[in-house]
Amino acid sequence: MLCNICKEKEATVHLTKVEGDKMHKVDLCEGCSKEKNVNAPTGGSLSSIFQGLTDSADLDFDAVEQTATETCLACGFTQADFKKTGRFGCPECYEAFAGNLDGLLRTMHRDVRHVGKTPGSHKNQAAAEQLKTLEKRLEEAVAREEFEKAAELRDEIGTLKATLKTAKPAKS
Amino acid sequence: MNVVDFLLPVSEAVARKGPHDRIVLSSRVRLARNVQGHAFPGRAKKEDRVASMKEIRPEVESLGAFKDGFSQSLDRLKSQEKNLLMERHLISREHAARSAGSAVVFRQDESLCVMINEEDHLRMQSLRPGLQVKECWKEIDKIDTQLEKKLDYAFSSRFGYLTACPTNLGTAIRVSAMLHLPGLQLADLIGQTVNSVTKLNLAVRGLYGEGSDALGHIYQVSNQMTLGEREPEIVERLTKVVLQLIENEENAREKLLEDQPKIIFNQIGRAYGILSNAHIIHSKEAMNLLSFVRLGVEMGIIPDVDCSVVDELFITTQPNHLQHLAEGRLSAEERDLLRADMLREKLKNIPRPEPK
């Protein structure tokens, strides 16, 4: 049986946790169990087993289970496939595996957030969202009779609307 | 039209001039893009690759820049033709190995080329002679902006342009320059140069990109990081490093000439001697010797000849260009004979080195 986390080494530490009527099982290799600070409940007595579980308190069962079973719904690609090929299966994979990605991206890039060119269609989307927020704030400002603030917001909305108009509509 | 007939003759292709082309052979900016609704080419089944190609290719072909361009599906090209395109740096080694469901579209002047379904749905590049990375970026940016109106790009505001490999994520830009650095090689400074460039988070590779050797003392310097930095910053950073490398190479050449001129004369003289007298020569040996002949021309030791004559030989002595010349399949041994014949003939037009 292979380790749920690295999917490379043989699992030697096996943990089971019962939560209500659900049972979670995790199998880890020695390296990963150390990294996750898990001790194998090898002791014979009940107390040592419980001790083992307490030690593993910071092991996030859900996260490990999720890592093991995560699959991109769009293309069926799994985390294990990614480990093997170093490539993703389709654009949707980034959504499916986003949770575990930042650590990896940090080793490759300057930052984990995109800055730089943005397609026009996405610019519109971002601007449209911003417009909604501004209009809501304008209403609030008017309701509170903060007319100076309202005038500022009105100008901002005007500029934003102008840019939205000049931008080509997005192709769906 | 046959791709070989469409391609510019090598002599014309190498005659193009650019700033700093003594040392910078070419500049290139490549953008990777993918469209929504299709798996990446490495994952997609053949039918899906054919489907995404059918969606993408007409949009690329319809761009003004490719009006008189060449466009072909890779299953319609012979492997020799694909390798010929690789030797011209129009397509990657990986793309040359692909077939149905992949395509290539390029301009005759080789300044713009789009690979469809390589590792990503679209890999578009702008290529120019000399140090012109900024111009390359502007040109490919324009093409990309035209295409984004027609194709639904896979983009996320968090990760930027989504690519098959996370190393390309974000701007998905690869800015690179191909440098000829024989001086640094002879001065034994190339190792430390490569190290310091690598420390700046830039990659140094051989002639044909990832995993290839630095044949003919030709090195490709490119950015590695694509996420978290804007395109103009990346272009600027690479330009600065390349300018520094040009300076280092020029200094190394001058210093060698001053301190150990015999080392330079010896290398150039031997290279000239072997190339003009050999009867069997492997492409690697030919490349490394041609590199010294080019150095001789650039330093005025080989007088009155343009370095495009040497650059032409860099390309025409490549295995697939030779195959094409011979109009048939040649074994490696036969190629080595033909290459030597060709070099002896061509070297007659290059004057003997005359050290001052």
Give an overview of the whole structure.
The complex is a heterodimer of chains A (172) and B (356). Chain A is mostly helical and 172 residues long. Chain A has helices spanning 30-35, 46-55, 61-69, 79-85, 93-96, 101-108, 120-143, 147-166; strands at residues 13-19, 22-28. Chain A starts with 12 loop residues before the first strand and ends in a 6-residue tail after the last helix. With 356 residues, chain B is α+β, with helices and mostly antiparallel strands. In chain B, 46% of the residues lie in helices and 15% in strands. Chain B is globular. The chains are: A mainly alpha (172), B alpha+beta (356). The A-B interface holds A 74-75, 77, 85-91, 94-95, 98, 101, 104-105, 108-122, 126, 168, 171-172 and B 34, 36, 38-40, 42-43, 119, 141, 144-145, 148-150, 152-162, 164-167, 169-171, 173, 201, 224-231.
Shape of chain B: globular
Structural class of chain A: mainly alpha
Calculate the mean pLDDT score of chain B and round it.
93
Biggest sheet: strand arrangement of chain B: 2-3-4-5-1-8-10-9
Name the structural class of chain B.
Answer: alpha+beta
Distance between the termini of chain A: 46 Å
Please sum up the structure shown:
The complex is a heterodimer of chains A (172) and B (356). Chain A has helices at 30-35, 46-55, 61-69, 79-85, 93-96, 101-108, 120-143, 147-166; strands at residues 13-19, 22-28. Chain A is mainly alpha-helical and 172 residues long.
Blueprint (SSEs and pairs):
The complex is a heterodimer of chains A (172) and B (356).
Chain A: E1 13-19, E2 22-28, H1 30-35, H2 46-55, H3 61-69, H4 79-85, H5 93-96, H6 101-108, H7 120-143, H8 147-166
Antiparallel strand pairs in A: 1-2
Chain B: H1 3-6, H2 10-13, E1 24-33, H3 46-61, E2 70-73, H4 79-87, H5 93-96, E3 103-106, E4 112-116, E5 122-129, H6 133-148, E6 155-156, E7 160-161, E8 173-180, H7 182-186, H8 190-199, E9 202-205, E10 218-223, H9 231-259, H10 261-277, H11 283-298, H12 307-316, H13 319-326, H14 332-347
Antiparallel strand pairs in B: 1-5, 1-8, 2-3, 3-4, 4-5, 6-7, 8-10, 9-10
